[in-house]
Amino acid sequence: MTERDAGPVVVLAHPSPDLYGSDRMLVESVRALAPTRRVVVTLPAEGPLSQALRDAGARIEILPVPVLRKAYMSPLGLLRLAFANLRALPKARRLLRRIGAEALYVNTITIPIWLAAAKLARVPALCHVHEAEDGVPRPVRAALSAPLRLARTVVVNSRASAAALGSAGRRAQIVYNGVEEPPSVTEPRAALTGPVRITLVGRLSPRKGSDIAIRAAGLLRERGYDATLTLVGSVFPGYEWFEKELRELAGDALEDGSVVLAGFRPQVWDLLAETDVAIVPSRVEPFGNVAVEAMLAGRPVVAADLQGLAEIVTDGENGVLVPADDPVALADGVARLLDDWDGALAMAKRARADATRRFGKDRYHREMREAVRALTDPDAPVRTSSIR
Residue 187 and residue 273: Cα distance in Å, rounded? Predict the structure, then answer.
């Protein structure tokens, strides 16, 4: 039996072998599709994501393709990007033809070459947009969303992502992320004795507000709160300069343990079990998996009032929202919880029930299966997320 004869195949293209928010959603997409289709995932290299995908039922094909990064945003960089795309495009098309792909699922707008390859191979394509670049100039946004015209279906993970796409977002289907629940929940401390443990999970990145978190933790200590901050995550290659800046910003707090750079962790539940307050001070956040994970772990959440986070957190109901890019406001938000810990615990309990209802995996799996089935069956019903 040849590869083409073994049954319908959907190819999922992804730009990274790491294991963060959109990477974890790729794993959930594989779990949704694997029961009814053969799933092949293309990655640029082996990495932490690879085994998670195999465990979910996918086969891995290694094929590096250019990824849109800020490093290309110059005349010389754009020229390099164009040449790199020209070299990679035939390889991507041949892979789709060799495998006999019935459909292509592109898990980000940062690898538009796959949409072009699908068009050349006459394979219907879906692009799952996890970005919300509404802070960039309009021409840049238009250029980022232009390749979406090659996709038969566009799926976004929030209303914020749809809005950032402009006219392309008007035809997008909203499918909110489905987040895995912890295997068990450790109840938060009933009383805060000893240091308050604050955690930020996410890449060490300006976009994730790692620097804002360090400044806010310092302000809390200046106000007399015995607060520690743990940053869980690593930097993108090429962003080592930012980790150096964070270390300089933290200064002596790294030495006395008030700030801890814990590095990348494949799963966060053990760390969240030791956390009192989870913070999500992002400057850009199309959805915010880490906010949902903290809610599912039963931890009070303080998040920036922007984009997808504002669709997850309702201030005073299931968390605290604070102005973005503001260390003072973030410190105030954490202090608001610490000064009314009983109220914070009640809020965290409501948040866990809310997150389980709105962002469960079963709902996500069903909606992604429907979106992919509609690529090859125009008469298939498609339902978008109605959760609010």
Answer: 8
Q: Is residue 189 a part of any domain in this protein?
A: no
Looking at residue 262, the DSSP 8-state letter turns out to be E
Residues 37 and 67 in one domain: yes
Tokens, residue 385:
């997320």
Both tokens of residue 388? Answer: 């609010």
**Of the ranges 114-128, 169-183, 230-244, which is most confident?**
114-128
Cα 346 from chain centre? 27
Q: Cβ atoms within 10 A of the Cβ of 249, count?
A: 15
In a domain, 386, yes or no: no
Clarify whether residues 35 and 157 are in a common domain: yes
Over the stretch 226-247, which tens digit does the pLDDT of each residue have?
999 999 999 878 889 999 999 9
At 168, the amino acid letter reads A
Q: Are 3 and 99 in contact (CB under 8 A)?
A: yes
What's this model's pTM, rounded to 2 decimal places?
0.83
In a domain, 387, yes or no: no
Domain harbouring 165, CATH code = 3.40.50.2000
Q: Which residues contact 338 (CB under 8 A, 6 or more apart)?
A: 192, 196, 225, 277, 344
pLDDT over threshold 80, residue 32: yes
**Boundaries of domain holding 69:** 3-178+360-376
